[in-house]
Amino acid sequence: MTYVLTWLALMALLALTFGSSYLPMGAWNSVANMAISCAKALLIAVFFMHLRQAGALLRLAACIGLLWLALLFGLSWTDFGTRTSSPAPWSSR
Amino acid sequence: MSYLSEGYSLRSWLTTHDHKRIGVLYMVAITAFFFLGGAAAALMRLELATPAGDVVSAETYNKLFTIHGVIMVWFFLIPSIPSVLGNFLVPLMIGARDMAFPRLNLASWYIYVLGGLFTVAALVAGGVDTGWTFYTPYSTTFSDTNVILVIVGVFVTGFSSILTGLNIVVTVHKLRAPGLTWFRLPLFVWANYATSLILLLATPVLAMTLALVALERLFHIGIFDPALGGDPLLFQHLFWFYSHPAVYIMVLPAMGVASEIIPCFARRPVFGYRFMAYAILGIASLGFLVWGHHMFVSGQSMYAGIVFSMLSFLVAIPSAIKVFNWTATLYKGSIVFGAPMLYALGFVGLFTIGGLTGLFLASLALDVHLTDTYFVIAHFHYIMVGGSVMAYLGGIHFWWPKICGRMYPEMLGRIAALTIFFGFNLTFFPQYLLGWLGMPRRYHEYPPEFQLLNLFSSAGAAVLAVGYFLPLAYLGWSLFFGKTASSNPWQATGLEWQTASPPPQHNFEQEPSVERGPYQYSVRSNEYGSQVR
Amino acid sequence: MSTAARSDNALFGMWAFLATEVLFFGPLFFGYVHARLAQPDAFVSGSHHMHIVLGTLNTAILMTSSLTMALAVGAARKGGPPGRWLGLTALFGLVFLGIKAAEWVMEFGEAAGAAGGEARFYFLYYAMTGLHAVHLVIGLGVVAWLWRHAKRFDAAYHTPVEAGGLYWHFVDVVWLFLYPMFYLLERYSA
């Protein structure tokens, strides 16, 4: 049944994320883990949460939270990502 | 048998599922908070009538402006139109029997009251002095007032907002009467729908941000404290991500009210209906992209300042489109200056002034001079009080016959509207000048050269107070002695006017079938087309 | 209003609510990104103190509970009583919470003594997994209620099971992001 197959895929992805964290890939470990988590989330949303059968409205509702968080992260980055640090002479950093 | 006579006991009101009764419950609650927040403002204006800080201490003054802001923003403005008029009217305007989730609706009111009780408790326990903005690290580390108690109050009430928003979104999507397509919806429904999207997407961020302030206060880990490796701007980005869209929660429904009153009292359809609807959606979405304009001098990077400044200019465009369209609606109309119309016209004018001064503040260089001065205070009071409060009052008057089946006394209504308009401008216009001249906000004393303008402002506040008490008095009076209202005393075109005043519990005897768009007004006032038939 | 229409409304309402939940967790993720970028070494150090086996096991358990929940919804849709699957879901959820609580107790000593960036790691760990656990407890309440009333649901009416399922899956998805964030930082150098 679709549900069991989905579960098997989830388990495989879990093994992948666990295993790959032992491979020294630096920053790419986090990228890989994020991608795998997204894949798992997508599997759960599409198959367990029945988005596969759902109309446009439900799919929009499913995505909009993440989209809005992306706005928060993205526009905040215009600040955090472009700060120049001018530490005082006595500052430890 | 109207919804009001379905039970006269307190219990029938406190256990109701009827969206109309819930709207009235909200109306009573927010009115109480309005006068509580207003009392704080009255004390502040009393203090500021003279330069010396002689009425209250600086610490007390800090507590006054904090509680004024907390109550007015979260316990009056945010719920005012959506939870009172939205709850009452949205199902009626779309031809539905009730909201999608009536029990959640009642729950939202109880949650609101619970949040309010926590906030009043904080007040009774000695108040809070952080400002309604709770900036860190003062709120997390240095303030020794009842910060957590107030935070709990606002946090709890946030869930009331979320539930109201949820209800309106699902209701508008799913419960429209047959024939009522999206572009046949009254703009009041569009406005409350867009507002509800903001309520859903922004409020949870505020809830978690305030929770973090409380946790930081308890555990001192240092997320917002630079000395421990944290960043106070983390708080500000999160706080304003909610609080800027929040101001659109406060103004969009007001725009919806204006869009109902103006066509009716000018006997002309709204000019540019589709643009009005798109502008509402545009304001709601663009409103999420501009929050950094509250942080231009906070230490935010210059690059971010430029981005947010540009986006802030953009969001003025849909607002301007709406102002042009309201004006165009009036052109060649047959205008009657009834009390609702006086409020609606006041809204358009004062919102325009407030909005234009927003452009001053969105300009980086000007903002360096104007930020944290009375210019900012005048700007947001023009929009929130000159705009939203006047629209709220206009809506209350316009739909009063529908809500309680009585007419308010028209002459008193006009006098009150004019008193409020005059008092408002006398209170807040001098504040633009004060800000421009450099008077900072949140100070209980000031240099003597600012006294004359402050005196005008305080005098205006007294007039404004009289103006606000008038409706309280005559609307209350009209409940018992007002003229009985017909189902459609304004000869208006919305679905809500096709049923009795006040409506029966299930709104319509028969589910309406909609055949036309809204605002089928004609200058000959005895000719107008309702949306049905 | 027909049952089908009511069901549509309820499910739409649940999805809209889940959107608000994403934004509710959002600031914590925001704080995590900020803190980790500011002090990456402290975060790696904190992550190395996590119990990787228990964390991975818990992830597997929660995903399995999602399977049993989906099977419960599937059973309800077909008209069969979903009680058995609901019971298993609750069981898995309880085991997850038990393991989580054990981890919290074991890590508390380390956490209480941490300073600077590591203190922020532990704070975010407890805050985020704690908030997740609160949601899981609520989910358990929902599943327990559904299990008690399982006989009410049939092929024609099973909306509460569907809506409960959506909530449960959401709680699972949140954990799927928390797991790598806290357990899998530079495991190769642990």
Account of the 3D structure:
- The complex is a heterotrimer of chains A (93), B (533) and C (190).
- With 93 residues, chain A is mainly alpha-helical.
- Chain A has one domain (2-75).
- Chain A has helices spanning 2-20, 27-48, 56-80.
- In chain A, α1 (2-20) runs antiparallel to α2.
- Chain A starts with a helix and ends in a 13-residue tail after the last helix.
- The mean pLDDT of chain A is 92.
- Helices cover 67% and strands 1% of the residues of chain B.
- Chain B has helices at 10-14, 19-48, 58-93, 102-124, 138-142, 147-174, 187-219, 232-266, 273-286, 302-330, 339-362, 364-370, 374-404, 410-437, 451-481, and strands at 520-521, 528-529.
- In chain B, a hairpin with a 6-residue loop joins β1 and β2 (528-529).
- In chain B, α3 (58-93) crosses α8, α3 (58-93) runs parallel beside α13 (374-404) and α11 packs parallel to α14.
- Chain C has 190 residues and is mainly α.
- Chain C has a single domain (3-189), classed as Cytochrome c oxidase, subunit III, four-helix bundle (Four Helix Bundle (Hemerythrin (Met), subunit A), Up-down Bundle), CATH 1.20.120.80.
- Chain C is built from 6 helices and no strands.
- Chains in contact: A-B, A-C, B-C.
- Chains A and B meet through α3 of A and α8 and α10 of B.
List the helices and strands and how they pair.
The complex is a heterotrimer of chains A (93), B (533) and C (190).
Chain A: H1 2-20, H2 27-48, H3 56-80
Helix pairs in contact in A: 1-2
Chain B: H1 10-14, H2 19-48, H3 58-93, H4 102-124, H5 138-142, H6 147-174, H7 187-219, H8 232-266, H9 273-286, H10 302-330, H11 339-362, H12 364-370, H13 374-404, H14 410-437, H15 451-481, E1 520-521, E2 528-529
Antiparallel strand pairs in B: 1-2
Chain C: H1 3-38, H2 40-48, H3 52-78, H4 83-112, H5 116-148, H6 159-183
